[in-house]
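Sync notes, pocket subgroup
Present: LS, DG
LS reminded everyone that the earlier model was apo-only. Rerun requested with thymidine-5'-phosphate included. Inputs:
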Amino acid sequence: MEKKEQLYEGKAKKVFATDNADYVIVSYKDDATAFNGLKKGTITGKGVINNKMSNLMMQMLEKKGVPTHFEKEIDERNTVVKKVQIVPLEVIIRNVAAGSFSKRYGVPEGTKFSAPTIEFSYKNDDLGDPLINDYHALALNLATAEEIDTIKKMAFAVNEAMIEFFKKLNIDLIDFKLEFGRFNGQIVLADEISPDTCRFWEAGSWDTTKHVSLDKDRFRRDLGGVEDAYKEIFKRLTGE
Ligand code: TMP
């Protein structure tokens, strides 16, 4: 598929039109931001890793019965995906307390939940992606009740598949953020699954007080070893 004009530039990706109206090309950048763009930086090689990783995850999930936007990897940084209409919700699944959950509810990071949790944020940079519930999403016409139901079921299915997948790589899946889109009236998993959008902790490193993060928290929290963490995840995924 031919790469045409740029349609959109986000914080970590660019999106290009193709010669087919049903497909776009996403191009992964090395740019990193945190705290709604307040903190900016570069993570060298991140775009290559996130492209590859996200494509591997989408293909793994397709096999588990989760429909995704993935179509075809073109090269190191570019992938053809279905042109979806993004549902403006950030869907966050958590297995262990960390980040904003720990802060908001005063729960120490590393507290394991008896069952996974789900939460939604309204994807709106001007408002700082505020936390919302199902009824707010309906009131704001962000999705239908049926779509919200489908999104929840798919998000928990993704969690089950990913927990199992990462366990084999000696990684505990703490939490992650998903985005969904509409394609031909159906809800499909979209955006990316990468160390930018997940918390990965070295297995067994966190049941006491300290944990070893192999994700974007190394950038957000100035922990150092940012590139190495992305490379380590990539190595475990691909053996490269
Ligand atoms: P949080 O604890 O900061 O709410 O983050 C929960 C998960 O969502 C974590 O794995 C990182 C991911 N995330 C994003 O992908 N994008 C974002 O803008 C934020 C705030 C979090």
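DG: The longest helix spans residues 145-167.
LS: The CA atoms of residues 109 and 118 lie 17 Å apart.
Action: DG to write up.
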